[in-house]
């Protein structure tokens, strides 16, 4: 190889930072990270930020400089895969030899009338800044992990609020009976009113209209269901799924443009049984490390080792003193072991600390 090989990583979230850190170890490579933000904010702690707690932040330029990685602040608009150049919103551009696409995801409120105007997402740091001061009745829409964490965190930290959780299915219903029964008991203990079999028909200034006609009054509606990925990949002509996520091969290379690797929420990554892996930092971090290892192997003229992946558990916090850790089999199905209560809260906190460190270390 002659000259330095320029690896450009788009996105400084869990996936992008783990890829950049690993890529910086490759001989002969120069690594640049591009992100619209100047700070890394632990996205998995956004429910805590919403409840008024301080969450860790890190200056990206300083953090990456310490590892010999260049940082460019800018919003990526387009990839010219033929010229191998990235166009930024400020008119700047950047060339690359290998690209790692890790632009993540954001909340999507477009599915229900009124949600864009009257509901607030809790998906990216900027969302938290847009949520008005909370008071009175809070309706949290979505019984997935984020909805459960948001509802329980708010109910615990802000006992002055009346929190409802509105969900089409039983909150945590995909977990074992022990885990989802514990979640329901914790929500009850914290005074969260849980509405199941409840589908939102529309959101208005005074609350939510459910399919069937019931009105759920709320001063603030928090939307935790539905994620969208940036349109950059689709608009740049990369092969994507109907949601705009990049289709990748086993090596995490774009199926249409193999010199572009795609990782994290913005990619469709197959698990050991062929099913899509979850949109989770538990997927994003190992995918980032693997992609960078594969790039380094290719630079040495070697075929990368096969990607191996399995989940071990799924963890959900229920405020600061309770939680659920559901252990899973290799195919992500529920195992018998479930931790609950303070042990689970402690376990989840250790995982979140580790995740923050993995992204930043
Ligand atoms: C409240 C909450 C709790 C969560 N808890 C958990 C949990 O406990 N466990 C778990 O595994 N997962 C959890 N998740 C999901 C997890 O946060 C995501 O799956 C993870 O952040 C995906 O990582 P990523 O690197 O792909 O994307 P992101 O972390 O979203 O990073 C993407 C980066 O790309 C940048 N970017 C985006 N578009 C552009 C652009 N056009 N130009 C420049 N930069 C751009 C963004 O600024 C961002 O820094 C949680 C999510 C939320 C919202």
What do you see in this structure?
The chain folds into 2 domains: 5-105 and 229-299, FAD/NAD(P)-binding domain (3-Layer(bba) Sandwich), CATH 3.50.50.60; 107-225, FAD/NAD(P)-binding domain (3-Layer(bba) Sandwich), CATH 3.50.50. A 5-stranded parallel beta sheet has the order 5-2-1-9-21. A 5-stranded parallel beta sheet has the order 11-18-12-13-14. It has helices at 14-23, 46-50, 60-65, 115-118, 125-130, 145-157, 177-189, 232-235, 281-299, 341-360; strands at residues 5-10, 29-35, 39-41, 57-59, 70-73, 76-80, 85-88, 93-95, 98-101, 106-107, 119-121, 137-141, 162-166, 193-195, 200-204, 207-210, 215-217, 220-223, 227-228, 246-247, 260-262, 267-268, 313-317, 323-328, 334-340. It is α/β, with parallel strands linked by helices and 361 residues long. The protein binds flavin-adenine dinucleotide. Flavin-adenine dinucleotide (FAD) is lined by residues 11-16, 34-37, 43-44, 46-47, 75-76, 102-105, 122-123, 146, 149, 230, 232, 264-266, 279-282, 284, 315.
């Amino acid at each position: 190889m002659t000259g330095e090989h320029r690896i450009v990583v788009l996105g400084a979230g869990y996936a992008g930072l783990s890829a950049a850190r690993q890529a910086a170890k490759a001989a002969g490579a120069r690594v640049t990270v591009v992100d619209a933000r100047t700070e890394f904010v632990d996205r998995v702690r956004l429910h805590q930020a919403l409840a008024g707690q301080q969450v860790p932040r890190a200056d990206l330029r300083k953090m990456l400089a310490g590892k010999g990685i260049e940082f460019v602040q800018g919003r990526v608009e387009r990839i010219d895969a033929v010229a191998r150049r990235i166009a930024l919103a400020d008119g700047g551009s950047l060339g690359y030899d290998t690209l790692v696409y890790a632009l993540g995801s954001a909340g999507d409120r477009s599915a229900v009338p009124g949600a864009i105007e009257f509901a607030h997402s809790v998906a990216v740091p900027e969302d938290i800044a847009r949520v008005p001061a909370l008071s009175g009745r809070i309706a949290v829409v979505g019984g997935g992990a984020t909805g459960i964490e948001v509802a329980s965190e708010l109910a615990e930290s802000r006992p002055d609020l009346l929190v409802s959780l509105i969900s089409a299915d039983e909150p945590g219903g995909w977990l074992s009976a022990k885990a989802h029964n514990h979640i329901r008991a914790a929500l009850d203990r914290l005074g969260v009113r849980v509405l199941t079999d409840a589908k939102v028909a529309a959101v208005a200034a005074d609350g939510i209209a459910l399919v069937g006609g019931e009105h759920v009054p709320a001063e603030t509606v928090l939307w935790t269901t539905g994620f969208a990925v940036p349109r950059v990949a689709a608009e740049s002509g990369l092969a994507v799924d109907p949601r705009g996520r990049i289709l990748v091969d086993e090596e995490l290379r774009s199926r249409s443009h193999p010199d572009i690797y795609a990782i994290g929420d913005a990619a469709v990554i197959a698990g050991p049984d062929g099913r899509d892996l979850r949109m989770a930092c538990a997927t994003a971090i190992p995918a980032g490390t693997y992609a960078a290892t594969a790039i380094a192997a290719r630079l040495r003229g070697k075929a990368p080792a096969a990607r191996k992946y399995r989940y071990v558990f799924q963890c959900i916090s229920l405020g600061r003193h309770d939680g659920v850790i559901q252990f899973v089999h290799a195919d992500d199905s529920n195992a018998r072991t479930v931790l609950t209560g303070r042990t689970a809260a402690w376990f989840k906190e250790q995982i979140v600390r580790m995740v923050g460190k993995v992204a930043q270390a």
